Amino acid sequence: MTIALYGEDAYLREAAAEVVAHTPEGGLVLDRTVFYPTGGGQPGDSGVVIWDGRELEIATTVKGEGDQIVLVPAAPMALPEVGVKLVQHLGWERRHRHMRVHTALHLLSVVLPLPVTGGQVGAEKGRLDFLMPEPPENKDAVEDALNELIDRDLLITESWITEAELDAQPELVKTMSVRPPRGKGSIRLVRIGEGPEQVDLQPCGGTHVARTSEIGAVRLGKVENKGKQNRRVHMHLG
Question: Domains of the chain by range and CATH?
Fold first, then answer.
C-alpha cells in the first residue's frame, strides 16, 4: 500500500519516502508519495526523486496493483534499491495547473447543470462532455457565469461519506462515465463554497485549489458535437 500524501495536502511539494517495490515494467513504488496517479481524467504527476546524490526523473505516475502508486521513470535506468530512503520532489507548476483546471471544470458543471459523460484535465486546458442535445444559446454568457463563480473566492473543502450514504444521494454523482471508486467503505466529496455559499458538492479523488480565485480567469473554447446527444465543451486557462 502507498500512502497518498496528495490526498491529505494537495500543496505538499516534497516528502521523504522509502522504496518498497519495483514493478516488472521498471516502475518505482514508495511507501508514501506526493505524486498523483493518472485517474478521473487527471494526468499523473511528474517530478524527480533524489537519493545518495543521485536523481531519477519521473515522467508520470499511475495506479498499480491493489493500493500501490507507481512512479514511472522518464528513461530506463537503475532504480534505487528496495529499502532505500529518498526525497521526492513534485513537478509543482504542472500539478498546480492541473489543480486549477480540475477545479474550474467542477464549476463548469455548475454553470451547465447537465449530466457529464466524460472529461479531461490538462495543464493549459480541460474539457467536459455533456449530455447536451443542443449547444448553449449564448457561450459568452456561460463564460461570464463561470468567471463570476471563480471571482467569488469560494472556499474548497473535502469531507467523506459512506457508500450507503452516497447510494441514498445519487444526485451527487454528476459523471455518467466514471463512477466513484468503491470497496473501501468511504468516498471523498469535494465541496465548493460553504453554507449558503455552497455551489457544488460531488465525489472526486483529484487535486484541487484551496479557493476558486486561485484558478484565475478562464475562457471557453469550441463546443464540439460528439454524437446525437453529446457535446464537448473546451475550457482554457488565462
Answer: 3-90 (2.40.30.130), 95-237 (3.30.980.10)
